Amino acid sequence: MIARCSLFPPPCFSAVRVRCFAGETSDTGILFREKLIYLQDLNVDPHKALRVNPSLRSAPISSVVSVETLLSSTGLSRPAVGRILDMFPDLLTSDPESEILPVLRFLSDEISISEQDIPKSISRCPRLLISSVDYQLRPALTFLKTLGFVGRDTITSRNTVLLVSNVERTLIPKIEYLEEGLGFTREEVAKMVVRSPALLTYSVDNNLVPKVEFFMEEMRGDVKELKRFPQYFSFSLERKIKPRHRLLKEHGILMPLSEMLKVSDGQFNNWLLELRLRSAERR
Questions:
Q1: How sure is the predictor about 17, in pLDDT bands with cuts at 50, 70 and 90?
Q2: Name one GO molecular function term (predicted).
Q3: Which H helix or E strand runs over 149?
């Protein structure tokens, strides 16, 4: 568990506000230009930021600095902070203590993500910072726990992206497709998504359905193999699955999905070359 005082020291905020811009009461032309220069120095597009977040125009620069200070205190580099703020300009006028700190404390206290991994979680999924703990993150965590994301399979910095998925509109429809579309039980689906959490991030229409159709219709596969190797859905249908299946079919070779897809292109091509040479020698 992370010591709150070491990672999120409240004194930083008041110190920054007082030290940098004490007495700032109005957004004069000079202060506004200073704010634009500050954003540019962070590699935040000020025009985009003002368009997405009009409140930024009247916000004191001290509030923007306090956001950077908090994010930097987690271990994020300044370029990383700038990238995040450019992606989500609404963060620039957020209240660090009431809006951002609760998210960081949730990751630390309720998921037990280490201090070293907090910046990894944020970098991989900056949307965490604009998500409500009570209405989004905690409900998603509760649902994921029912699927088996507990103990050694608990949520980590590698898959906190699952926490920003809406339970009713995003997670449940994917679970239902795997159950109803493939005939798996809830327990079987739970084991699949725990083994391959990325399954819950894929689009049903754009990923799951076309890959299942190709597997069943073109590859004449058995759905049980998808249960054993759910990572199948993580590979590109056009760039890897179809080309490799075509080559194997041309050589009359049957191969488990895991062996067909997990090796690199170089290894796969070398393996096919060896088969061709052996076939030529037999002739």
A1: very low
A2: nucleic acid binding
A3: none
* Entry pTM: 0.81
d(CA 70, CA 5): 12
pLDDT at 9 over 90: no
User: What is the rounded distance in angstroms from the CA atom of residue 67 to the CA atom of residue 96?
Assistant: 6
Residue 155: CB atoms within 10 Å: 23
Mean per-residue pLDDT, 159-177: 96
Residues 270/276/281/283 CA torsion (nearest 10 deg): 180
What secondary structure does DSSP assign to 9-45, as a single string? -THHHHHHHHHHHTT--S--HHHHHHHHHHHHHTT--
Q: Is 118 exposed, middle or buried (0-12, 13-18, 19+ CB in 10 A)?
A: buried
Give the tens place of pLDDT for each residue, 264-274. Answer: 988 888 888 88
